Structures are given as structure tokens and as C-alpha cells.
Amino acid sequence: MEEKQKMLEMVEKMGVQAEKDGYPPAAARILSLLLIGDPPYQTFEDLQKTLNLSKSAVSNALTLLQLRCLIEYFTINGSRKRYFRIQKTAWYEFMKTIVRTQRPFTIQVIPEAIAFRSDKYPETNQVLLEAKEFTDYMFGEMESALTRWEQKHIK
Q1: pTM higher than the cut 0.90
Q2: Contact in structure between 18 and 58 (CB atoms under 8 Å)
Q3: Residue 75 carries which DSSP code?
Q4: Distance of alpha carbon 68 from its chain centroid, rounded?
Q5: Degrees (nearest 5) of the Cα angle 23, 26, 41?
């Protein structure tokens, strides 16, 4: 099998998983390509051509991935093009995003759900209480781990 075809199959496989994690299809494929492609950076046109995506799909996906701090662009002296690559702190930023976006649910919504429920089904109330306790613990641990990682690795 041709090397490019193997790479595209891997991009597709990784892209499907990224879609399951909530990424739009174009963003999922671009992220995947930037993770495994050689070179590890691509121009807008490279992404469009390699992945057979429209200009708007590439543009929207790049904007989303940059907003999530997963990719960045750089320029090369003498070239007017932007080159996109995985941001060095992408995984750290990804975990921070999870904590920032998911924690409000456990802080606000679960307690409201518990307060709203009647006492008719105490086992369900107990599940919600345990969910709150568990997520509070996990997010606290994640925040501590992110702080330790930042102190050691992020300059």
C-alpha cells in the first residue's frame, strides 16, 4: 500500500476517535494529520489538498483548534504562508480545557438536580451525591496535577 494512503487511513482512524470526543470532522482530521504527518507542520493549502476539505472547513477547523490551544501557526522568513503545527503545550492545554468546561456542570448542575429531586427514589439521589463527590475529587486531583506539571514543565 502506498505510504500516503497508509497515512490517510491512520488520519481517518484517529479522526473518527476525535469525532467521538466531540471534535467536528474537519478539525479531527487536521489534528490527526498534524500529529502523524511528515513534516509535522502544514500550510492551509496542504491541509486542504491532503484532506480534500473546503476552504471554509479548513478555516473553521483551524480557528477551533487554535482557540482550544491545540495548534499554533508560525511563519518562515521570506514566505507569506502560515504553517500550522501541534502546540508544544497542547496536552496540558487540553486537560485544562476539560477541567474548565466540565467542572461547572458538577459545581452547578448536579447540586441543582439533587435539590430538585424528591425523596421518592433515594437510590437515584445517592447516585447523584456520589457523582458529585467523585467528580469534585477527580477535578481537584486534576487541578493539582496540572499545577505540578506546570511548575515542572511549563516555563
Answers
A1: no
A2: no
A3: E
A4: 7
A5: 105
Taking alpha carbons only, the member of 36, 26, 58, 31 closest to residue 45 is: 58
- Phi and psi dihedrals of 75, rounded to 5? -120, 160
130's grid cell: 456520589
Is residue 125 exposed (0-12), middle (13-18) or buried (19+ Cβ within 10 Å)?
middle
pLDDT in tens, the chain (155 residues): 698 899 999 999 999 999 998 899 999 999 999 999 989 999 999 999 999 999 999 999 999 999 988 999 999 999 999 999 999 888 888 888 888 877 877 788 888 888 888 889 889 889 989 988 998 899 889 989 989 988 998 76
